[in-house]
Amino acid sequence: GLHLVIALNYGGYYDILQATKSIVNKAMNGLLDVEDINKNLFDQELESKCPNPDLLIRTGGEQRVSNFLLWQLAYTEFYFTNTLFPDFGEEDFKEAIMNFQQRHRRFGGHTY
């Protein structure tokens, strides 16, 4: 299904830091072994608790992530538009989706 995420008072640095502290604390208290630490465990420790986005639409002409879902954006496709968020409508959304559908996602892999 479709998930819309609007982050208010959220910080990606904080989310990564608190997840790291939680994992270290559990390891120090014998609740997990270092070998148990992996991406899935880290995902579970994040406070954001949202799926990794397929597409990030950045409005207002900005071309940065602004401390938003830093861990989760690793393989996300970005779409930038000059349209301001309050003016971003159905046609703008359709354009972003059509642009996304034309992309060949590699999830970090290379195609030569």
Automatic annotation (TrEMBL):
GO terms for biological process: plastid membrane organization; polyprenol biosynthetic process; response to cold. CDD domains: Cis_IPPS. One of its GO terms (cellular component) is chloroplast stroma. GO terms for molecular function: ditrans,polycis-polyprenyl diphosphate synthase [(2E,6E)-farnesyl diphosphate specific] activity; magnesium ion binding. It is an enzyme of class 2 (transferase). PROSITE patterns: UPP_SYNTHASE (PS01066). Its EC number is 2.5.1.-. Keywords: Transferase. InterPro entries: UPP_synth-like, UPP_synth-like_CS, UPP_synth-like_sf. Belongs to the UPP synthase family. NCBIfam families: uppS. This is Alkyl transferase. The lineage of its organism: Eukaryota, Viridiplantae, Streptophyta, Embryophyta, Tracheophyta.
